[in-house]
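EI: anyone free to look at a 277-residue chain?
SC: sure, send it
EI:
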Amino acid sequence: MLKDVTLGQFFPGNSFLHKADPRIKLVVLVVYLVFVLLAKTAAALGIVLCIALTLALISRIRFSVLLRSLRPVIFILLFTGILNLFLTTGETPLVEWKFLHIYPEGIRMAVFMMLRLVCLVEGSSLLLSYTTSPLELTDAIESLFGPLKRLHVPVHEFAMMMTIALRFIPTLMEETDKIISAQKARGADFESGGLIKKAKALIPILIPLFVSAFRRADELAEAMECRCYHGGEGRTKLKVIRSRPSDYVFLLLMLLVCGAILPANWYLSFTVGAFTL
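SC: here you go
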């Protein structure tokens, strides 16, 4: 069900990740994503998996919630795995059928790439939306990109738009699920027929969804105008973001652990538990 999609949702809590400085979490997220993409061996990927698992344990978010976060990217995961499975070549094929050949290297590559995507999704969710409220995220983005204000870049408006877009993802998912249920109750069929028929069946879903999205956007704009919102100029904050010593320790530990990915790429081979791409 679309209402079970957890992308963009915030789960309140009292864990260390929830209390950490959102600016530090954004910096850690960038470092984490860079090193995940740099991981090229199974040993390096193992370090990434350990980091993602540690973040999940620290956040105290249920693993069922983390598994639900993978639902929107299941198609991408399967597509990536299939491409690497059939397009990666090796020496001796395991399976041969007509023009299709599956090599051991293809299986390893498919598993590697799928696990890398899982780490990207889970790590981003844990450091960004799951443990950071929209207000904290807005303040963090505005603070980090504050120097760009000297170049007349509308940092506050940019941060506000990103946060609103992220916040409304679960709302639109829930709205879509309600529209689908309502259309099914009226006898709509979204499963039978060919591709063209299924595409036409989406019209009764997309039109109400767009109308609802524009209505919500208009209501939000009116609410902001009624509260005399005029951007970030001269605005003050009820809660000022302050970093704690533990936040810098967290950043330093993440840098050190992520930095271990580089020697894992350089010195280890698949024969000792690492698979070089």
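EI: The two ends are 36 Å apart (CA to CA).
SC: 👍
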